[in-house]
């Protein structure tokens, strides 16, 4: 869901199997931060998604390496809440953790949040089902993106 919010082209490329993340310093940094922060927590693997951790009362927790909270991060957590709700879990909401700035944000889970998550999921499915990727975003939006070389490498 974060790819949809950031760049529909990135979502389409990821869904069709192009995955350059292993060459990205930004992705490596995020993985290292995740591996060394909140180490007493365990991932929750849903097969199609991996939640950083879920606490008692079914509160979803995600760790982000960003220094700035983003609506994309809340959408990501709402998607996880939706997946858990579909499994019959009575989800309480979520928390996004930003260890670099020692801050958290709360993500509500209610009927409106569920509608937003379902609408976002539908938009993602439409992007994935397209015959070709969405147009490139302006180059200035691509800083730090692991797909930048694919989209802008010939320029």
Automatic annotation (TrEMBL):
Residues 1-152 form the DUF83 domain. It holds the Pfam family Cas_Cas4. InterPro entries: Dna2/Cas4_DUF83, PDDEXK-like_dom_sf. This is CRISPR-associated protein Cas4. It comes from Streptomonospora mangrovi.
């Amino acid at each position: 869901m974060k790819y949809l919010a950031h760049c529909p082209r990135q979502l389409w490329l990821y869904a069709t199997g192009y995955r350059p993340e292993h060459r990205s310093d930004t992705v490596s940094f995020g993985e290292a931060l995740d591996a060394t922060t909140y180490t007493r927590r365990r991932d929750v693997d849903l097969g199609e998604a991996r939640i950083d951790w879920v606490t008692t009362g079914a509160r979803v927790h995600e760790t982000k390496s960003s220094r700035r909270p983003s609506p994309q991060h809340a959408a990501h957590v709402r998607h996880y809440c939706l997946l858990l709700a579909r499994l019959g879990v009575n989800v309480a909401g979520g928390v996004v953790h930003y260890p670099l700035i020692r801050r958290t944000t709360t993500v509500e889970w209610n009927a409106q949040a569920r509608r937003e998550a379902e609408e976002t999921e539908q938009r993602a499915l439409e992007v994935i089902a397209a015959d070709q990727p969405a147009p490139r975003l302006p180059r200035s939006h691509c800083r730090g993106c692991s797909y930048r070389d694919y989209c802008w490498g010939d320029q």
